[in-house]
Amino acid sequence: MVSNKLAIASISLSQYPGHTLDHKIRAASQAGIAGIEIVYNDLLTHSKNQNISIQIGAQEIHTLCLENNLQVLSLAPLENYEGSTTPLKERIALAQHWLEIARLLNATYLQVPCIYTPDCTRDAKTIISDLQQLADLASATKPIVSIAYEPLSWGTNCSTWESALSIVQRVDRPNFGLCLDTFHEGTRLWGDNASPTGLQMDAETKLQDSLRRFLRDCPREKIFYVQLSDAERFETPYSLVHPWALPGEAKEFTWSKHARPFPLEVEFGAYLPVVEIARAWIVEGGFKGWVSMEVFDRRMKDGKVSPETAARRGVEAWRKVQIEMENKSRL
After folding, report:
1. Which partner from 11, 27, 169, 184 sits 20 to 30 angstroms from 294, CA to CA?
2. Beta strand pairing status for 259-260 and 296-297?
3. What are the backbone dihedrals phi and psi of residue 180, each rounded to the nearest 5 degrees, phi first?
4. If phi over 0 gives left and psi between -120 and 50 gives alpha, with beta otherwise, what is residue 142?
């Protein structure tokens, strides 16, 4: 069975304000999870509740993670960075702050999803330059922080692993690589929440072609970590009058925020080909690094799902994916 270490995002252990970050950390550790992605807003809430600075909060959380044998995989997510119309000087100052917090957490990575706001440049040189400066800032002070760049299925300039890899190669920094997520691969090429069938046209062909190209073209050393999550098929197909729809918001973003359970949770409507994607990325691709659960389940917002329950769901989902990947590899 594949031996990748398992992590989980702090927001995937609960979205209920009454479930504190220290509670989530203990729950993840007790479930046998080895790492955690600290979501900035969870850390900010923790610090405000303690009436301390976020810097002191980060030090506290780092110590708590050490005490619970939990490695901080990343600080996440620094959003809408590259090519933004916000002045670069302001973005650099924000990045310096995030990197300070990442170092206090002893986080290996700073997760940077690709920009998804329409209010941004499409100029490739500007995008590459912004990201080069970010990577250089992250390596200018010890410990070096690596930038995990994530393609989003609703990204403005980047929505596939291939477009993200092209950016990674042009940035050309050793501490700049990919964060790959099964949700984005699955909803960009295969699933469609606006379709009565739940599928895109030629879904299987598009996905299989993408996975073949991945195995041929993607350097393994540029995959920093892999995130796993599924997607719930909409009972009523998405439309602009859907109760979750927001003006100007991409349908994939709406999907991600409300209906993104743990892998293979068919009891919650999960239906993406997560195992096929993960098998190509992890088993066939020979990826030995971290696998992290990043889910956004609307059922976690009212406090009825405890962090302990969420952590167990994450562990069970990974166990199922491992078994299914192994079974498919023997066929």
Report:
1. 169
2. antiparallel
3. -110, 135
4. beta
Do the Cβ atoms of 28 and 36 come closer than 8 Å?
yes
Of 200, 134, 209, which is closest to residue 173 (Cα–Cα)?
A: 134
> pTM, whole model, 2 decimals?
0.96
Q: Where are the alpha helices (DSSP H) in the chain?
A: 21-30, 40-50, 54-67, 88-105, 124-139, 161-171, 182-189, 203-217, 251-258, 274-278, 307-330
Domain residue limits at 192: 5-327
Concatenated DSSP letters of 18-75: TS-HHHHHHHHHHTT--EEEEEHHHHHHHHHHHTS-HHHHHHHHHHHHHHTT-EEEEE
Report yes or no: 233 and 271 within 8 Å, Cβ to Cβ.
yes
What CATH number is given to the structural domain containing 48?
A: 3.20.20.150
For residue 181, the SS3 value is strand
CA 264 → CA 72, 83, 162, 272, distances in Å?
A: 26, 36, 25, 8
Domain total in the chain: 1
- In order along its 331 residues, the chain shows pLDDT tens digits of 788 999 999 999 999 999 999 999 999 999 999 999 999 999 999 999 999 999 999 999 999 999 999 999 999 999 999 999 999 999 999 999 999 999 999 999 999 999 999 999 999 999 999 999 999 999 999 999 999 999 999 999 999 999 999 999 999 999 999 999 999 999 999 999 999 999 999 999 999 999 999 999 999 999 999 999 999 999 999 999 999 999 999 999 999 999 999 999 999 999 999 999 999 999 999 999 999 999 999 999 999 999 999 999 999 999 999 999 988 655 4
